[in-house]
Design goal:
Length: 311
């Protein structure tokens, strides 16, 4: 198409997860349940950390922010998806689509860096225990969290800005939300430069943060193996296992989505990976960090007893 014939869509139609009418209600109920658990679980974690003085440590400060990030990036996607399950037309305006993309990217990128900061915190706790309180000061924790959100906003602004420059001649998005790769397929202008930039940015965010996590855990593993007592090693592994599970789930699904050519992989595979990291992982994180965490369980029991006694 010639440059002068470019047209820009004013709204898009989301294909959704399925076109089968008999699955719309079951999927609506399923994702409503997942979203409810996500909100309750993460907000309960934030509330519990705020109400429990024994949890006012760097690790739980970062976990509190991770829960907030999970709520935000799940909320950027799931409410619109729920509406689409019960709507005749899955329409989203151009501005609404770009806004959804922007805030989704902010918090997904922030999640990458928050998990990295949490890995560094575990590294200091296990490898430099005597200096932990000195290194992980309140000032440093504040700087690290500020940096996490700053990276999210910078990355999202660049990538969304590139998407705003494209002209869209088609309106059917082959996905259930406005994501970069499905949107690029609708462009009638060349997307090569945009695709390479997005690939490099996504690669930088995923590779740099994941390498930092891997290096941190290499030092952690080395320190744990030097612990003489079995009980000590078990306790050290226990403090890291939850974070390792969360890291593996998140990086595995995001790497599958963004570190591949846009033409590779089927729509079904992309939908499964997207559903996993946009809706399932935010639900699982509070469960992962609470079920095997004695400090969280103790704080929860203490808070519940205090609340019941007041009543």
């Amino acid at each position: 198409m010639a440059p002068g014939n470019h047209s820009t869509a004013t709204e898009f139609i989301l294909r959704g997860l399925t076109n089968r009418p008999e699955l719309q209600l079951p999927l609506f109920l399923l994702f409503l349940g997942i979203y409810t658990i996500t909100l309750v679980g993460n907000l309960a974690m934030v509330t519990l950390i705020g109400l429990s003085p024994q949890l006012h440590t760097p690790m739980y400060y970062f976990l509190c922010n991770l829960s907030l990030v999970d709520v935000c990036y799940s909320s950027a996607i799931t409410p619109k998806m729920l509406v689409n399950f019960v709507s005749q037309k899955n329409v989203i305006s151009y501005r609404g689509c770009m806004s959804q993309l922007y805030f989704f990217l902010v918090f997904v990128i922030a999640e990458c860096y928050m998990l990295t900061v949490m890995a560094y915190d575990r590294y200091v706790a296990i490898c430099r225990p005597l200096l932990y309180n000195t290194i992980m000061s309140h000032a440093l924790c504040t700087v690290l969290v500020t940096l996490v959100y700053t990276m999210g906003f910078i990355g999202s602004t660049i990538e969304t800005g590139l998407m705003l420059k494209l002209h869209y001649c088609e309106t059917l998005i082959g996905h259930y939300f406005c994501d970069i790769l499905p949107l690029m397929k609708l462009s009638c202008s060349s997307t090569h430069d945009v695709e390479m930039t997005v690939f490099l940015l996504a690669g930088f965010n995923i590779v740099v943060t994941s390498l930092t996590v891997l290096v941190s855990y290499a030092f952690i593993l080395s320190s744990i193996l030097r612990i003489s007592s079995t009980e000590g090693r078990s306790k050290a592994f226990g403090t890291c296992s939850s974070h390792l599970a969360a890291v593996g789930l998140f990086y595995g699904s995001t790497a599958f989505m963004y570190l591949k050519p846009s033409t590779a992989g089927s729509l079904a595979q992309e939908n499964v990976a997207s559903v996993f990291y946009t809706t399932v992982i935010p639900m699982l994180n509070p469960l992962i960090y609470s079920l095997r965490n004695k400090e969280v369980k103790a704080a929860l029991q203490k808070t519940l007893r205090r609340t019941l006694f007041r009543c």
